[in-house]
Design goal:
Residues 13-80 form the HTH gntR-type domain. The protein has 240 residues and is mainly α. 72% of the residues lie in helices and 2% in strands.
Length: 240
């Protein structure tokens, strides 16, 4: 019979799974900012775990690319700086195109139905003004396409790209930012419509159409990140 002692590292696989899931979501939605220190003691108390299973979860998250572990230093959320953004936009098209083309060729009807359900939740989050929900369901949408590719080499690379994709998307989906940039709000709606078109292309087993759509989808992210990083200068009047 499993132990119920919260200090037993083997007692609660559910709590360990909850810890990993919570950390992933907090990082993807930027509640844990890039570069932020992760306090093992606080997490152990929050999830009713001893330090060893917390460290085990940390090692797993480090292997997936969510956090960085260095000797004699506290764990930190993987940074997201200029170099990371540049590397993401250089490499992401390779992975996204490969996963989307393969999904169009290998998908099952059940997988298409699940992808449509994820898109339904994504649009519900948009309707409800749920920014974190938008980020999380957008991540689930692209991850599901990667799973539909049924390729053991593509999926790990896609998972790593999606960590930074989600954090970029958090900027894209912020309502306050969109209010200052009407073009960004329009393109956010366009991105949601592209999801529907990508689903249709995958369902039709049309890899060429799916590739064209996912390339356009990434271009939207690139343009909006540029808009955020290099906004127009403030208009300042100098009266005589």
């Amino acid at each position: 019979m499993p132990s119920t002692n919260p200090s037993d590292p083997h007692a609660s696989p559910d709590r360990k799974a909850s810890l990993g899931g919570a950390l992933r979501r907090r990082i993807l939605t930027m509640h844990l900012a890039p570069g932020a220190v992760i306090d093992e003691t606080e997490l152990a108390e929050e999830f009713g775990l001893s330090r060893p299973p917390v460290r085990e979860a940390m090692r797993q998250l480090a292997g997936e690319g969510y956090i960085e572990l260095e000797p004699n230093r506290p764990a930190r959320v993987t940074p997201l700086g200029y170099r990371s953004l540049r590397d993401f936009f250089l490499f992401a098209p390779v992975v996204y195109v490969a996963s989307t083309r393969l999904a169009a060729e290998r998908r099952t009807d059940a997988e298409v139905a699940e992808l449509k359900e994820i898109q339904h939740r994504f649009r519900a989050a948009i309707r409800d003004g749920d920014v974190d929900g938008r980020v999380f369901e957008n991540d689930r949408f692209h991850l599901k396409i990667g799973e539909m590719a049924h390729n053991a080499y593509v999926l790990p690379s896609l998972r790593r790209c999606l960590i930074d994709h989600a954090r970029i998307a958090k900027v894209f989906y912020e309502d306050q930012l969109a209010a200052r940039h009407p073009k960004m709000a329009e393109e956010r709606d366009e991105a949601a419509a592209q999801h529907d078109e990508i689903i249709a292309a995958i369902e039709a087993r049309d890899p060429d159409r799916a590739e064209a759509l996912v390339r356009a989808h990434l271009d939207l992210s690139r343009r909006n990140m540029a808009m955020y990083a290099a906004p127009e200068g403030m208009a300042i009047r100098f009266d005589n």
